[in-house]
């Protein structure tokens, strides 16, 4: 997914920038970057690989050496960024969050045709560079940003910094959030609203879908008005967002309690304890436990003091082992117990199966699994959703394809209704494959009610294919 943070200040902004970006570390694992600008020193930028050690460790030196009044930084799950670009708009730094499905088409149609070129990297064309190049196709920055928003298929939210301030532009349909905070002599802009609270900022505004503002130390000025169609990602509340996050005024932790509550209200099993898969499953489990009055417990805990992302070998086999080694079972809580385990979602099913096996091997009698969101039937085409890239990665789709002997999208629609026979047979097949005692998913209507905003403002494409 990825996230970003920017600051415009009357004094040096590096302290706020460093911690503001660091508070987005839950959104990505590949690259971290910061770019600053000051009238005296111009632009300066640094990017580090954060796959093996976190942003904060990697940027220890830069927080002492970089200086500037304006700054933008990111945690990227994909390409290295921010980039610094020189064009007829002058010099600017840019960072983006989103996904572009039509990169090849754009490059062929708009750039190759005009005898321009792009550098191919081992992971393809840098999407942020492509956005900058699209912006440079137009006479001014606002027209350029609007143009980029229009031609890309997918989603894009961006920060662009020049000597005037930080241009903040939210995705055309607001798939990802963009919020502005204010304190004396500084203004900041972030993906995650909670990222600036401990830095002394308070909420100033949330940008609407497609809105473009310029952020200066004095505040945010709207340069292009928002559109009327919002489709914010529902997965932000279920999985991506940190528990302290809030989107469209709705707190992640509260939404997770609501999801757990709804699952409990429809459930009929009587487990001894309710548990959540750390970290995002915990809020859902608390909600279930509060509603059902079945005690919440932690059959395993994460060993957090030294493990986060340290020493991750590149061999997949070892990575899986190390991912498991972070979880330590507490046998006295598990042995002989009938456990209800909630996770945010079941994507491929492999992780949940491993977790369940782990509980059985530690002495659990039964493991009932609950998913806080409905079966995922369509791979996300709007964000770089790290857990699945194609429909056939999804266990629900694989089960349907096996049952029906076809992967036809028309057939998939027959599995959407949670009251239908086909839906229930699909769930039973997944349960049997993954060796759970019982399996239930949250319903889409309950998920929408849990989020608490108008259904037409939420993206639920991965659950029901609705664009
Ligand atoms: S398809 Fe799913 S993960 Fe992607 S933006 Fe929509 S709700 Fe979020």
What keywords describe this structure?
Glutamine Phosphoribosylpyrophosphate, subunit 1, domain 1, six-stranded antiparallel sheet, 467 residues, alpha+beta, 25 strands, binds iron/sulfur cluster, Rossmann fold, seven-stranded antiparallel sheet, 2 domains
Describe the fold and architecture:
The structure is a single chain. The longest helix is centred in the middle third of the chain and has 15 residues, at 252-266. This protein starts with a strand and ends with a helix. The model has no long low-confidence stretch (mean pLDDT 92). The chain is of the alpha+beta class. 31% of the residues lie in helices and 27% in strands. β14 and β15 form a beta hairpin. It contains 17 helices and 25 strands. It has two domains: 3-230, Glutamine Phosphoribosylpyrophosphate, subunit 1, domain 1 (4-Layer Sandwich); 245-464, Rossmann fold. The strands form seven sheets. Strands 3-2-4-1-12-11-13 form a seven-stranded antiparallel β-sheet, with helices on one face. A six-stranded antiparallel β-sheet has the order 5-6-9-10-14-15. Residues 175, 233-235, 380, 382-383, 385, 459-462 line the site of iron/sulfur cluster.
Topology (elements, then pairings):
Blueprint: E1 3-9, H1 14-22, E2 31-38, E3 42-49, H2 55-58, H3 62-65, E4 70-76, E5 83-87, E6 90-100, H4 103-111, E7 120-121, E8 124-125, H5 127-135, H6 141-151, E9 154-162, E10 165-169, E11 179-183, E12 186-190, E13 202-206, E14 212-216, E15 219-224, E16 232-233, H7 235-240, E17 246-247, E18 250-251, H8 252-266, E19 273-276, H9 281-292, E20 300-302, H10 316-325, E21 327-329, H11 331-334, E22 338-343, H12 350-361, E23 366-371, H13 395-404, H14 409-413, H15 421-434, E24 438-441, H16 444-451, E25 458-459, H17 461-464
Parallel strand pairs: 16-25, 19-22, 22-23, 23-24
Antiparallel strand pairs: 1-4, 1-12, 2-3, 2-4, 5-6, 6-9, 7-8, 9-10, 10-14, 11-12, 11-13, 14-15, 17-18, 20-21
Helix pairs in contact: 5-6, 8-9, 8-16, 13-15
The structure holds iron/sulfur cluster.
Iron/sulfur cluster binds at residues 175, 233-235, 380, 382-383, 385, 459-462.
